Amino acid sequence: MASRQSMQLFRALRTSQSTIRQPVNRISVCRFYSTSTEDAPAPLLSKLKADLKTAMRAKDTPHINPIKTDVQLVALIRKIQKGAQDAAAEAKAANRDDLVQKEEDQIKVLNEYITNSGVESLTKAQLKAMVQDAVEASKAAGVQAKSIMGDVMKRLSGALEGKDVDKKELSKMVKELTALSTPSFHPHNSQNRIYFTMASRQNISSGSAFEEQIGYSRAVVTGDWVFVSGTTGYDYATGKISADVTEQADQTMINIATALESASASVSDVVRVKYILPDRDDFPKTWPVLKKWFGEVRPAATMVQSALMKDEMKIEIEVTARIGCGKQDK
Predict the structure, then answer these.
(1) Which of 86, 153, 116, 78 has its CA nearest to residue 326?
(2) DSSP state for residue 218 in the 8-state scheme
(3) Cα–Cα–Cα angle for 260, 266, 271, nearest 5°?
(4) What is the three-class DSSP state of 230?
(5) Domain 202-327: which CATH class?
(6) Residue ranges per domain, the chain?
(7) What is the pLDDT of residue 151?
């Protein structure tokens, strides 16, 4: 009985095996997605690039300032590199060859990033040639001596956009080359000979109705100094002002940052700031906003309680900046 059952089981297994060996019709499967062989950019990097484009189109300065373009990143790397160079010099003076080598290795690595950044770096000779061309163009256009430096900077702004340029060196070069083309009377010369001295001034307007009605500039540039007038929280595009003091403070700083950019400067170049508020209780409310803008700059500051021209104005800010000084190591 057991033997008969074993034979039946054996036949069943053979039948099932022959069934398994039957050829199977292959089905073509189409996959509607694929994985790229290239590494995708980091989500944060993609977001930063997209946000920067959006902020630049909207002139959203608070978002533009912290989001760095490639040019700004190269400038930041150069600042770190300058710190390493200074540290190497100090170590060399102290006969610390081990520290010198460490800093020189860091300088070499940073230089590789600058070289491979894709940002065009101008040599001193190239920059000087561009400045000379701008000076000649300004003279040919009949620009007055007192306005020539501002006109030259304006002509250079487009040509230098997207390039790795030391603003302090640029300002110094423009000052020197415009001085050679600007004659002025020298009081110590008895024969009234013509001497060539620096004489420049650039007035910057924001388009505010107050500037036209009263007769003043949003900012004045002379040499490498920028003096920004007392500025309030009006949105110059709409003429409206918020009732909230913190929003006014932020909009005021946006207006100031825009004026500084027109002068080839930035908020990081600010060396002195003056705050004027009618209500002393509003001072603490503005501190987080002011820290956001000046937390790393740390300019000399004065806060004053005083009435402003209109009741809706809750804060006024005035700044002085020196072009390029924000890049110097503190």
Answers:
(1) 78
(2) S
(3) 95
(4) strand
(5) alpha beta
(6) 45-121, 127-196, 202-327
(7) 79
